[in-house]
Design brief:
Layout (H helix, E strand, L loop, with lengths): L1 H20 L4 H36 L5 H9 L25 E2 L7 E5 L2 E6 L4 E6 L1
Antiparallel strand pairs: 1-2, 2-3, 3-4
Helix pairs in contact: 1-2
Length: 133
């Protein structure tokens, strides 16, 4: 059992280092810490290692959109707001019932108004990447 814990911990450290280097490290580090804490609660030391890897990978994938995308979304007339029961937060998916409007200059992003808040979304996964105030 000890050997499995050491192997898992080593793999977690190696994988989290690689994931953290894929972006500026801020989102990956935050994801790694949150994932490790959640994993430790649910699965002890092994869960912490696995949670750190998953959290770093997901955190590193959610990079904020470029400033020109945020400016574009802020300047567009607001589409009708859609009310959803779940909270709107970065990293959480938007329900399929919400219609996304693509950003013409950068099709890797789309936006919508959900619960009276503008959100920028990665359209392939429908994941919120930024909530615009």
């Amino acid at each position: 059992m000890k050997k499995l814990v050491y192997i898992t911990a080593t793999a977690a450290l190696l994988a989290s280092g690689a994931a953290a280097q894929q972006s500026d490290g801020t989102n990956a580090a935050t994801g790694m810490v949150g994932g490790a804490a959640t994993g430790a609660i649910l699965g002890g030391p092994v869960g912490a290692g696995v949670g750190a890897v998953v959290g770093a990978t997901l955190g590193g994938a959610l990079t904020p959109p470029p400033a020109e995308v945020v400016t574009y979304v802020q300047q567009q007339p607001a589409p009708p707001s859609v009310v959803v029961q779940q909270p709107v937060a970065v990293g959480k998916p938007i329900p399929e019932t919400v219609v996304l409007t693509p950003v013409p200059e950068n099709p890797t992003y789309a936006y919508a108004v959900v619960n009276e808040r503008r959100v920028i979304v990665e359209p392939k996964s429908r994941t919120v990447v930024q909530v615009v105030n």
